[in-house]
């Protein structure tokens, strides 16, 4: 996965540094939707699911790399 959102876009969207990863391009519209819908939990479901899936895939990629490095030692 590669980072799609630019630093400028993330700065304009006020994305905290801890969340500026390869999934930030999905977090920007999610946060806009959350603000528009007053953070109602049953709103913005599609955006939230896409963001959480992206984060999960990033996590699994890190786990696979760690396990591969562990096996090679």
From TrEMBL:
Keywords: Disulfide bond, Electron transport, Membrane, Mitochondrion, Mitochondrion inner membrane, Respiratory chain, Transport
Intracellular or extracellular location(s): Mitochondrion inner membrane; Mitochondrion intermembrane space
Cross-referenced PROSITE patterns: CHCH (PS51808)
Chief location bin: mitochondrion
Topology of the protein relative to the lipid bilayer: Peripheral membrane protein
Pfam family, one: NDUF_B7
Gene Ontology CC, one term: mitochondrial intermembrane space
InterPro entries reported in the protein's UniProt record: NDUB7 (IPR008698)
PANTHER family: NADH DEHYDROGENASE [UBIQUINONE] 1 BETA SUBCOMPLEX SUBUNIT 7, NADH:UBIQUINONE OXIDOREDUCTASE B18-LIKE SUBUNIT
Stated role: Accessory subunit of the mitochondrial membrane respiratory chain NADH dehydrogenase (Complex I), that is believed not to be involved in catalysis. Complex I functions in the transfer of electrons from NADH to the respiratory chain. The immediate electron acceptor for the enzyme is believed to be ubiquinone.
Family, similarity comment: Belongs to the complex I NDUFB7 subunit family.
Name this polypeptide is given: NADH dehydrogenase [ubiquinone] 1 beta subcomplex subunit 7
Organism expressing this protein natively: Adiantum capillus-veneris (Maidenhair fern)
